[in-house]
Specification:
It is built from seven helices and eleven strands. It has 326 residues and is of the alpha/beta class. The protein has one domain: Vaccinia Virus protein VP39 (Rossmann fold, 3-Layer(aba) Sandwich), CATH 3.40.50.150. Helix 5 crosses helix 6 and helix 6 runs parallel beside helix 7.
């Protein structure tokens, strides 16, 4: 499914130019809240948001976080989870995308540790989705990690799930029943098949059963100076499946705004919280580029680039480089 143009997206939501607010209001369409997300979340109305989707700090010593003891790390995020559950609609979904915490080459799967946080609030796990990617850090004392997980919870048993909006081509689209009462009738859904819980978006994904969504590395068109950046298309499928046009999508750790951009591309309203002013500025700039039709973007479903070994690594655009002297 082709997304609407930036102008079409804006028109459908009722605004022609991006009005980027720094605090929530009922009339806002795009909000980038600066500062600590816990403080921002406490100011938001209960039940207003249809989708919370984020990739929280990973506790692996990146430039924007401090490596701490795992228990302390989870305890620090617990108040944030409390607020996220409060602002989530009764029909809403929460998608929590995480990798692994690693200490002395021992793996601690963060999705396993996060599950009790959400379950104690009555949230119900609908899928544990595996996101596979072909490139990443190389390990020497264990096999190199090439997947992360998305935990999809709902607040109740009645929730938005637009399966037809995210179906993928069937392996045998013309296949029909060859016996019984349904002889001669199509044996599969004519709109395509359920994409399953292993995601790798490929041009011929129906041959593998995977969605190959590359992580945002050196030559990815969306690359900024953020070290752990969401690919927009990873969020787009969640936005299409779990929300309706005009719904609010919230990323409490919004970074450079990739989840917000996925929401805007699909005619949803977007709110993000970000502590780092540099990433905040990049997110604002990317949203402006989106509405101007100038956003560098890897389209949903584009074949994954296969390097020849002769490419030159593209540089980060100058306006997205961080002044390390600050």
């Amino acid at each position: 499914m082709s997304p609407p143009s930036p102008a079409e997206s804006a028109a459908q939501l009722g605004f022609a130019t991006p009005v980027i607010h720094d605090r929530f209001s009922e009339s806002a369409e795009v909000v980038i809240a600066r500062g600590d997300c816990a403080e921002t979340l406490r100011s938001l109305p209960a039940g207003f948001c249809h989708l919370v989707i984020t990739s929280p700090p990973y506790n692996i010593g990146k430039e924007y976080e401090r490596a701490t003891d795992l228990d302390r790390y989870l305890d620090a995020l617990s108040p944030v989870v409390d607020e996220l559950v409060r602002v989530l609609s009764p029909r809403g979904s929460l998608v929590w995308q995480v990798g692994n915490y690693v200490e002395n080459s021992e793996i601690f799967p963060l999705d396993v540790f996060y599950y009790p946080f959400f379950k104690k609030h009555g949230l119900k796990l609908r899928n544990r989705i595996v996101w596979h990617f072909a490139h990443g850090l190389h390990a020497s004392k264990r096999f190199s990690g090439r997947y992360e997980t998305l935990l999809w919870f709902t607040k109740g048993d009645q929730y938005t799930f637009n399966l037809d909006d995210v179906r993928v081509p069937s392996k045998y689209p013309g296949k029909r029943h060859f016996k019984g009462d349904k002889y001669g009738q199509p044996s599969g859904n004519p709109l395509g098949k359920n994409p399953s819980d292993i995601w790798t978006i490929m041009a011929h994904e129906w041959e593998t059963g995977l969605w190959d969504i590359p992580n945002v590395k050196a030559n990815h068109p969306e690359k900024t100076s953020h070290p752990c950046q969401f690919p927009i298309e990873l969020v787009e499928r969640c936005v299409l499946a779990l929300t309706s046009p005009g719904d609010w999508v919230l990323d409490p750790f919004s970074g450079v705004g990739s989840a917000m951009l996925a929401a805007l591309r699909r005619n949803r309203r977007a709110i993000g919280c970000e502590l780092d002013p540099h990433y905040n500025a990049i997110a604002r700039r990317r949203i402006e580029q989106f509405f101007a039709g100038e956003l560098p973007y890897r389209p949903l479903g584009k074949p994954v680039h296969q390097p020849s070994g002769r490419e030159k690594v593209s540089q980060v655009p100058p306006e997205w480089r961080q002044d390390v002297s600050q």
